[in-house]
TrEMBL record:
Broad class of the protein's primary localization: cytoplasm
Protein name: Class I SAM-dependent rRNA methyltransferase
SMART domains: PUA
Entry keyword set: Cytoplasm, Methyltransferase, RNA-binding, rRNA processing, S-adenosyl-L-methionine, Transferase
SUPFAM superfamilies on file: PUA domain-like, S-adenosyl-L-methionine-dependent methyltransferases
């Protein structure tokens, strides 16, 4: 088995619980490595640190699976890990039938994400090593949760391309089923496996529910980057008189319209297919103002090298959003870029508020992803979602 020798900084991180070895932390490789190979990781002094999946062509050189030298990486190990992750959601967090079942290295299964939607499991793999075991993983999912009848392989996106893996969307195991209806508080949503990510953004669940307590009967609400209408539906259910929801994806908007009808709020939500920036500019030119503006954009920062441009994009969209909030209104602003930490995000919104001539007060404590997307304290990469509820006042 090939060996990867790491520097002192990487060794310390692994010792504290990190499960990823970046290429910059590798001192040398002993032996030949192909994408997906299992390798052992050592310090310069020869101390064993762990073993896992390697990819010499990726910025993430090794994804550590176990720190025990004698533990075999096989289906039995995956079954035990998936069972443990599932029990955490059900027994500790008390989720029932809709939740993130596996969240990568936070569940000691790096490169694997599994979302459960009733009897469908959506599987997403971003590791060449885990790709080799995906059928074993699918079988383990169905063994751990017998109520799951379909495992859908949702293997698309940048992370796959970075690993040199093909993009695949299909039923991997079980019944040919693509759609289901889930419940989230008082709301219901159609989940289509052929949509974005794993079918639905479960990470915002608690933040969508939190929105309802700030909506007053008769409010006008703007939901930008609405996707399938998550925040918009909750706003309407909570009593908003008018909701405008914007997304550039016609397919997502079609599903959002179905969701509005499913919840009986279709008469109070206007859906717009278009660019967020362009549509917000049109609203501003018309002098439109809203009691609540929600900004939930995609990750504007995919890599550290994109940080400056990404922060500028966040600034621009928040500046536009602040100009559409009434004096005494609320801005709900989010970032799912893991490279933008909380302080960067707060600095950005402070700057946008200053330029827009607004005082901003926190209505809610700092919010992050739902607890079924656990944050591993030793791995900052597992903490990515930031969400701020802000009271907006004009500077006088």
């Amino acid at each position: 088995m090939a060996r990867v020798v790491v520097d002192a900084q990487a060794a310390r991180a692994i010792g504290k619980g990190a499960m990823i070895v970046f290429k910059k932390g590798v001192v040398r490789v002993e032996g030949e490595i192909k994408p997906g190979d299992i390798v052992e990781v050592y310090t310069r002094g020869g101390k064993f640190l762990g073993k896992g999946f390697a990819n010499p062509h990726s910025n993430i050189m090794v994804r550590i699976v176990t720190k025990e030298k004698d533990v075999e990486i096989n289906k039995d190990l995956f079954r035990k890990r998936i069972r443990k992750a599932n029990e955490y959601r059900k027994k500790v967090l008390r989720y029932t039938n809709v939740y993130r079942m596996v969240y990568g290295e936070a569940d000691y299964l790096p490169g694997l994400i599994v979302d459960r939607f009733n009897d469908i499991a959506s599987l997403q793999i971003s590791s060449a090593g885990m790709e080799r075991f995906k059928l074993d993983v699918a079988e383990a999912i169905m063994e751990v949760e017998p109520e799951i009848e379909t495992v859908f392989e949702k293997n698309t996106g940048r992370s796959r391309r970075r690993e040199g893996l093909p993009e695949i969307e299909r039923v991997l195991l079980g019944k040919e089923k693509y759609r289901t209806i889930i419940e989230e508080g008082r709301a219901k949503f159609i989940v289509d496996m052929r949509g974005q990510k794993t079918g639905f953004f479960l990470d915002q669940r608690e933040n969508r529910l939190a929105l309802e307590k700030w909506v007053r009967p008769g409010d006008r609400v703007l939901d930008v980057f609405t996707y399938t209408g998550g925040f918009a539906i909750h706003a309407a259910i909570a009593g908003a008189e008018e909701v405008i929801a914007i997304d550039k994806s016609p397919r997502a908007i079609e599903t959002a319209k179905e969701n509005a009808k499913l919840n009986g709020v279709e008469d109070r939500i206007k859906f717009i297919v278009g660019s967020a920036f362009e549509e917000m500019e049109k609203l501003q030119k018309r002098g439109e103002k809203f009691d609540i503006v929600i900004l939930d954009p995609p990750a504007f920062v995919q890599h550290e090298k994109d940080l400056k441009a990404g922060l500028r994009a966040y600034f621009n969209v928040n500046f536009a959003g602040l100009n559409l909030v009434k004096d005494g209104g609320i801005l709900v602003t989010c970032s799912c870029s893991q490279h933008v930490d909380l302080q960067m995000f707060k600095d950005m919104i402070i700057a946008a508020g200053a330029k827009a001539g607004k005082f901003l007060k926190m209505l809610e404590p700092y919010r992050t992803q739902a607890p079924d997307h656990p944050i591993l304290m030793a791995s900052k990469d597992t903490e990515y979602l930031k969400c701020l509820f802000l009271y907006v006042e004009n500077m006088r």
